Amino acid sequence: MIVRRTGVAVPIRAFALGKARLADELGPVERAALGRRLADRVIAAAAPSPTVVVSSDVDVRAWADARGVAVVGDPGTLDAAAAAGCAALRAQGCTRGVVAHADLPRASTFAPVSRDASLPIVALVPCHRDDGTPVLSVPLDVDFRFAYGPDSFRRHVAIARELGLGVRVVRDPDLAFDVDTPDDLAALVTLDNMAGATQVPSAK
Q: 147-166 pLDDT, tens per residue?
């Protein structure tokens, strides 16, 4: 019997360099600590699915190793990292890959974007600004072209349709909320469901 599995790929360039847009709110040490805590949340949400972290950073690789998570090298861009993560999942026998950003403080499960299995459907979660794509789920037998950056949600929808794939937009408030700006950081502080789980470090 063929077991159809969904795996999760989490690109992380580096903890220390992340969240540069929060530099006025948090110092580099605090931003790195926040990055680790948010990534912990994402990895926990991915369980028990096969999971791979895409990074070449020494600290990130040590963090992933300590959690028993497979690591592949970062090719240098987010688009290439997503493709590398999906290739690693395909090599593990997965038929669907979920590419998740590492800064999702409310993530608890990726089930909403995993149900399509190997069907020719792309499932996307637009961010809470309806701009980015914090979570993107693709069938792994298709050479999907990732296109992250501003307005990536609409580009990913267009790419899926160009490939003849179905599109399922998942409006999930927990998976949609990522932490990129000072306003996001302020909202994170007020999240009752995150109390005691992902505490925001003190501002510098």
A: 999 999 999 999 999 999 99
**Are the C-beta atoms of 20 and 30 separated by less than 8 Å?**
no
CB within 8 A of 15, min separation 6: which ones?
Answer: 31, 32, 35, 36, 39, 57, 59, 60, 63
Residue 64: closest CA among 163, 56, 135, 88: 56
Beta bridge mates, 53: 10, 71
Between CA 136 and CA 167 the distance in angstroms is: 11
**Do 95 and 104 contact (CB within 8 A), yes or no?**
no
Q: Are 179 and 188 in contact (CB under 8 A)?
A: yes
What is residue 61's DSSP assignment? H
Residue type, 117: A
Q: What is the pLDDT of residues 54-78, one digit of tens each?
A: 999 999 999 999 999 999 999 999 9
pLDDT recorded at residue 32: 84
Q: Which helix (H) or strand (E) holds 154?
A: helix 152-162
Give pLDDT, residue 191: 58
